[in-house]
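ok so i was messing around last nite and threw this chain in just to see what happens. nothing serious, just curious
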Amino acid sequence: MDLFILLLWILLLALFFAKVEINIEGGNGWGAGLPTWRIEKHWLLDIFWGGRAMTGYHAWVFPFIILLFHTVFFVGCQWSLKLEARIVA
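result:
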């Protein structure tokens, strides 16, 4: 039952974050209208971002999501390579 509640919680968080994304990105897409810093051209952007700009928004949101996915380790799950692979996948 605890696992079921945790999964529901994660789905609720995902729904709310998806709504935030929709409202932030809007019709502009990829943070084009956000009042934040941007790196438009860099060779690493071509490799990791498909040539799209890197913004302050993306610099904070992606680590947040990674940390959120690792929440299971702070609610009682013991770290294992198998669980880490599932999280990263």
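not much to say yet. The chain has four helices and two strands.
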